[in-house]
């Protein structure tokens, strides 16, 4: 009896506390959530034909866990879009009416992350499922509205919860505003996204100009999704892009880098670069791209590098972002290298000056992470050493940790016509040869040998030896 009494007292207190917290924080609109599907088309399994077995275990367990706890939960965004296109999604995002704190309480292995908008990461072994609360409009007029907008219209912070209808309206493209429920295998479609996917169209939700000003990165996303998925950008969605290209200058360089990385690693980098140039979006990101692509040798080098990247991505082989950006910026390095040599610098010091200049200049527009830029410099710096094919130098180069990446880079230079094909073939044969055969391949050492300095004895030592 005493135990039951205590439970009633503490449960009553916890309910009051929860009500107080709900009153002072921005939470999803629970009253309208059950009616949200009235605003959406309900698409049954026999129509959409999504193969449920393509969902990850983590995605299914997360939606089931939230639904058992009394919340709504759906697989959303790109995962649903890819499933409709019969592609296996790389990751799964979940949207729910539960707050981050409520999600965190449901799953033991979870953590709340994010500042711009709080999310929850739910872990299942190596898999991490991202869970977001339904988001509301940043324009909502309420005391709980934790949003901030720049004078340009760009959203700086939008930590605003809402209901499912508002969440669908906030999403960028109709193809991404789809909600799939694994429990009944139905899709809720608020903006005719399924019809657009079937028609091969990428369409912005709302006024494209306003949506691009809210987040200029959406222009890059439109290019990437169009190239990756083979969707044609709808005319009204495409028209404002060239006029608003300068808006990308307001986006933090680190965020631009992340989006560009997704674009180049989409498996359709070559198409994406051509689309960037067509829409005038490369200015301020890779401003020298036009100059490089107008030069026959530079164009061939960049296109070979992008095709190589696409082939590796589509074959599900690992791709190095360092190698990719090293190729995109190489011809800028070449120009700067020549400039410093013309000023009287020796070859190797001139190369290092050129590398630092290009990395520093690029950081002002597209912040390449330091862990990538360090490797880029190593790849560039080793190129000079491939021309040294005498003595012990070729042996030491083979032992360098970045030899393989630098060697692949060398082959691209040879294939593009920048260097003789013979040089790349020599290194290929040298690396595979052994013993005397490798020794016989070395070229005569024609470099002048450095004169060894004679050690001069100290005066005190000389004096002591004479007994003075």
From TrEMBL:
<comment type="function">
    <text>Adds poly(A) tail to the 3' end of many RNAs, which usually targets these RNAs for decay. Plays a significant role in the global control of gene expression, through influencing the rate of transcript degradation, and in the general RNA quality control.</text>
</comment>
<comment type="similarity">
    <text>Belongs to the tRNA nucleotidyltransferase/poly(A) polymerase family.</text>
</comment>
<dbReference type="InterPro" id="IPR043519">
    <property type="entry name" value="NT_sf"/>
</dbReference>
<keyword id="KW-0808">Transferase</keyword>
<dbReference type="GO" id="GO:1990817">
    <property type="term" value="F:poly(A) RNA polymerase activity"/>
</dbReference>
<feature type="region of interest" description="Disordered">
    <location>
        <begin position="438"/>
        <end position="468"/>
    </location>
</feature>
<dbReference type="GO" id="GO:0043633">
    <property type="term" value="P:polyadenylation-dependent RNA catabolic process"/>
</dbReference>
<dbReference type="Pfam" id="PF12626">
    <property type="entry name" value="PolyA_pol_arg_C"/>
</dbReference>
<dbReference type="InterPro" id="IPR052191">
    <property type="entry name" value="tRNA_ntf/polyA_polymerase_I"/>
</dbReference>
<dbReference type="InterPro" id="IPR025866">
    <property type="entry name" value="PolyA_pol_arg_C_dom"/>
</dbReference>
<dbReference type="InterPro" id="IPR032828">
    <property type="entry name" value="PolyA_RNA-bd"/>
</dbReference>
<dbReference type="GO" id="GO:0003723">
    <property type="term" value="F:RNA binding"/>
</dbReference>
<dbReference type="InterPro" id="IPR010206">
    <property type="entry name" value="PolA_pol_I"/>
</dbReference>
<dbReference type="GO" id="GO:0005524">
    <property type="term" value="F:ATP binding"/>
</dbReference>
<feature type="active site">
    <location>
        <position position="172"/>
    </location>
</feature>
<dbReference type="InterPro" id="IPR002646">
    <property type="entry name" value="PolA_pol_head_dom"/>
</dbReference>
<feature type="compositionally biased region" description="Basic residues">
    <location>
        <begin position="449"/>
        <end position="459"/>
    </location>
</feature>
<protein>
    <recommendedName>
        <fullName>Poly(A) polymerase I</fullName>
        <ecNumber>2.7.7.19</ecNumber>
    </recommendedName>
</protein>
<feature type="domain" description="Polymerase A arginine-rich C-terminal">
    <location>
        <begin position="344"/>
        <end position="457"/>
    </location>
</feature>
<feature type="domain" description="tRNA nucleotidyltransferase/poly(A) polymerase RNA and SrmB- binding">
    <location>
        <begin position="230"/>
        <end position="290"/>
    </location>
</feature>
<dbReference type="Pfam" id="PF01743">
    <property type="entry name" value="PolyA_pol"/>
</dbReference>
<dbReference type="Pfam" id="PF12627">
    <property type="entry name" value="PolyA_pol_RNAbd"/>
</dbReference>
<keyword id="KW-0804">Transcription</keyword>
<dbReference type="GO" id="GO:0006397">
    <property type="term" value="P:mRNA processing"/>
</dbReference>
<keyword id="KW-0547">Nucleotide-binding</keyword>
<feature type="active site">
    <location>
        <position position="93"/>
    </location>
</feature>
<feature type="domain" description="Poly A polymerase head">
    <location>
        <begin position="73"/>
        <end position="203"/>
    </location>
</feature>
<keyword id="KW-0067">ATP-binding</keyword>
<keyword id="KW-0694">RNA-binding</keyword>
<keyword id="KW-0507">mRNA processing</keyword>
<feature type="active site">
    <location>
        <position position="91"/>
    </location>
</feature>
């Amino acid at each position: 009896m005493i135990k039951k009494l205590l439970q009633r007292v503490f449960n009553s207190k916890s309910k009051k506390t929860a009500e107080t917290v709900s009153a002072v924080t921005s939470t999803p609109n629970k009253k309208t959530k059950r009616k949200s599907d009235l605003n959406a088309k309900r698409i049954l399994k026999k129509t959409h034909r999504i193969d449920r077995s393509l969902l990850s275990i983590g995605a299914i367990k997360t939606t089931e866990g939230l639904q058992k706890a009394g919340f709504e939960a759906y697989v959303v965004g790109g995962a649903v879009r890819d499933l409709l296109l019969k592609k296996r999604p790389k990751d799964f995002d979940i949207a729910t009416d539960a707050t981050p704190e409520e999600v965190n309480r449901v799953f033991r292995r979870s953590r709340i992350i994010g500042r711009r908008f709080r999310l929850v990461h739910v872990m299942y072994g190596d898999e991490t499922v991202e869970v977001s609360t339904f988001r509301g409009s940043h324009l909502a007029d309420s005391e709980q509205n934790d949003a901030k907008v720049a004078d340009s219209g760009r959203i700086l912070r939008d930590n605003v919860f809402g209901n499912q209808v508002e969440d669908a309206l906030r999403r960028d493209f109709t193809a991404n505003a789809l909600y799939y429920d694994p429990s009944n295998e139905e899709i809720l479609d608020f903006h005719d996204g399924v019809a657009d996917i079937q028609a091969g169209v990428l369409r912005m939700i709302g006024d494209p100009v306003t949506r691009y000003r809210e987040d200029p990165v959406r222009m890059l996303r439109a290019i990437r999704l169009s190239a990756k998925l083979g969707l044609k950008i709808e005319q009204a969605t495409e028209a404002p892009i060239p006029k608003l290209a300068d808006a990308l200058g307001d986006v933090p360089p680190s965020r631009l880098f992340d989006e560009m990385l997704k674009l180049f690693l989409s498996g359709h980098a070559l198409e994406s670069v051509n689309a960037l140039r067509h829409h005038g979006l490369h200015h301020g990101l890779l401003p020298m791209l036009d100059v490089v692509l107008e030069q026959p040798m530079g164009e061939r080098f960049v296109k070979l590098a992008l095709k190589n990247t696409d082939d590796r991505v589509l074959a599900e082989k690992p791709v190095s972002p360092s190698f990719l950006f090293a190729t995109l910026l190489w011809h800028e390095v070449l120009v700067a290298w020549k400039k410093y040599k013309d000023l009287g610098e020796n070859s190797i010091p001139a190369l290092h000056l050129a590398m630092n200049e290009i990395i520093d200049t690029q950081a002002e527009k597209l912040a390449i992470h330091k862990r990538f830029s360090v490797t880029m410099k190593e790849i560039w710096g080793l190129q000079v050493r491939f021309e040294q094919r005498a003595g012990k130098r070729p042996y030491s180069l083979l032992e360098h940790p970045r030899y393989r990446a630098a060697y692949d880079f060398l082959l691209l230079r040879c294939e593009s016509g920048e260097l003789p094909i013979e040089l790349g073939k020599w290194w290929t044969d040298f690396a595979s040869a052994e013993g005397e055969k490798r020794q016989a391949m070395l070229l005569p050492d024609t470099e002048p040998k450095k004169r060894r300095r004679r050690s001069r004895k100290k005066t005190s030592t000389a004096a002591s030896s004479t007994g003075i």
